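Hi D.,

Good news: the full-assembly prediction came through. Inputs first.
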Amino acid sequence: MTSDTARLGNTRDLRIAAHTAGGRVQLARWIVWPPVLFTVLFFVVPLVVMACVSLWTRKHGALIPDWTFVNYEKFFSKGYLRQALFNSFEVTLLTTAISVLLAYPLAYVLAFKVPERWQRLLLLFAVLPFWTSYVVRSYSWLLVISDRGILNDTLIGLGVIADPLKIAYSRAATVLGFVHFFTMLLTLTIYSNLVQINPSHLKAAQDLGASGARVLWYVTLPLSLPGIAVGAFLTFVITIGDYITPQILGGNTEVLMPQAIMLQISRTANLPMASMMAIILMVCVLAVYFAIQRHLKMDRL
Amino acid sequence: MSTPVVELQNVAKEYGPVVAVEDVSLSVQKGEFVVLLGPSGSGKTTLLSMLGGFTLPTRGQILIDGADVTGVAPAQRPTVTVFQDYALFPHMTVKDNVAFGLAMRRVPKPQRTELANAALTQVGLADFGDRRIHEISGGQRQRVALARAIVIEPAVLLLDEPLGALDVKIRRQMQNELHTLQRELNATFIHVTHDQEEAMSLADTIVLLNHGRIEDSGPPERIYREPASVFAATFMGDTNIIRGTIAKSGRGNVTVDTALGTLKCHGQGEPGEAVSLSVRPEAIRCGAANGPDRVKLGSGRLSDFVFQGTFRRCLAATGPDASVQLQLRLPLDTQAGSDAPTPIWTRSTDIVVLRESSE
Amino acid sequence: MTNGRITFPVGFYLVVMFTFIYLPVIILVLFSFQQGLLPIPPFEGPSLEWYTKAFSNSRLMDALLNSIIIAVSSSFCATFLGFFAAYGIFKHTPVGVRAVRFVLMAPMTVSYLIIGLGLLIVFNFSGIGKSLVSVGIAHSVINLPICYAIIYSQLGGQLRNIDNAAHDLGASDLQTMVYVILPTMVPPMLAAFLISATLSWDEFIIAFLLSSFDVTLPVMIFEMLRAGLTPEVNAAGTVVFAISVGMAFLAAFAILIRPGRSS
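Then the structure:
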């Protein structure tokens, strides 16, 4: 039984080795803190500093920490600044509404009218241009709608219109650019909600004598509201904070909030004013978030 | 017996207001095959998890090889757990999985390969070392998990329902192999299951758990023949429970008043005490009760015959107005048919008196 | 609900919608092969003239290189920080886990413009200033929550016991992480890396605010726009689009490979 004793001796060694292996620092206990520290350092701290700077003023090119609400007062007293916020809200609401109206039927058709084996492929292709940068996407629309662009060229060629439509560099162009982007996003969120609806609900409704339109109105639509809510909220958040689409497509006809902020930064380097407007923008988004929070089930995506 | 290899002293685990394990004390001898048996929610898995070091007990002490390991991490305990889902490392080959524990112990590579191959041979997978985990079957994965555990020669092997995911035929086969393996290694196995047949075929000692407490513990045969409580009697196979009150007691015998009349049986108790009598279905016979130790259970009509292969299962409605239904297992040559009531009886030694206080 | 065929009205509707969705992309790509001076009808060509011009534009090529460096390095940081956060929370629910999660996810709820402005102020004050490094840090900040969420969603289930088993067999925390968890988590980490790289590659406003002379590709294209419409921008935009779509496809593919599944 020499082999047995040899193995037993071996065993004891193994156990001792295992005992010494565990005495190290518990990596798993502190590993969570570097990313948290990183986020605090480069996200939380900058926001706090920005909030502080929004209470400072800029005089003769220098920042003065005088802790005053004068910037906020200026925002509400100067019509052109307030107007930027109103414009932003109008464009955002318009974008969200049109995008939902365009995306819902597309998601519905993809989910219920297209054979299952085609669904995923068509969905993938419906959201592919989503992965274009804002700059490139906005620029591409400019090509389509400019005075001598493909749209006017075609319409004039067909004799529908005599003079080119002045779409480029207007609010309509901004909204068009946004709607294009968010139709794709909303199609994705609404589709993923629609396919989660239990088909037996729909069958049950039909079985109980509901017509196609009634099933849509009384069953499908209410059940797909969470998908609409999530998509619409994302649309709202991204649209209201986007600078590039109104800058490229809207031109200088009207100023939206992000453009107003960028003007403060690039024209006058007035960081306190820019910070103040950034804070106001943030508060608006948070207010909307808390208002519709209970309707948002982000994890359903 | 020598000093126990595992000792639990008043171990309890609470999750907030929920009591998972309530005051369990237990000792396990070296080389023993212990099965923790119980329905889901009985605390058996929590108990195993505390033994393995994955769960910290709220109260009590756990000793392994005489040393207190209550707060010791899994890696530093002389235990290894075989998980229900095997928890094999999907990106490694079979051999690398088995050698993992050795590598962590800095065993040199040639020795590591040799030991891993030996362990794989022991579980009958000598030629599978280079396969990937997703290339082998469920039963084979089970064996790899076993090999991975035994290769580091733990003092105690903990098995968490390891056969639960396998189909019946492979499960039977694995039960036999597990039993053989445990004998070969002369190691201590603590095995969790909810299947009483599995428990009976594997265990030296069954520890029967319910609601976080030990209902009964002992060799399978003892628990089956003389269960300590109504729960133990009903969980370990089928039984008939007849309620009654002790009329007389003395010299290891009691007389119990029941709906089936006054029954004389072996047991303890005070007169006036409410008790339950457990009679296994196979202990009930039909026909005239002639003999000193035979106890009449009235007579009843037999119905609901079901052919079960080695016996016929049926029901007998007996007692006043046929109000008591007893389950019977009759030999296959018993013919179903006559509507006439048949007298039924059992031996007084086959009746187990269960005192209500033990519930 | 469907009988396996697309009916005519449905097909017509799909064609209209897909035309709307693809119109700008098609025009962009088509006129990048334009032979004339302007990316507007009539289309003359095809020619690779503008691609040649774009690829010999050293400012544009520098921006392309900068974008690649920033996308790779910031995504690498974000993926590993995201993994650390996800694995740390998975292993030992830390004190105040709700607060920790809130902080980790918070950057997703704030506009890039506001994050960029905050960092601009802090980098100015601290003397770090505007540079590609600043852009890289900012891109790590915005991508960390996405990486964390993707990786965390794939931990759990079988991974819990696999992690326990490694410890049980004597592996230390570091050994468990390096030898067992990281190899099993390669597919979701790859997906997180690619999604993160795509977002960094396309990001404009933060790069615009935080870069000085060395710029990224989207910023460079924006600056080229000031000179008016030219097919050179189409060529550059087509390249940007192609690379984005390629990365998105790879990410989708990586997500389909789930970790911890042994079957």
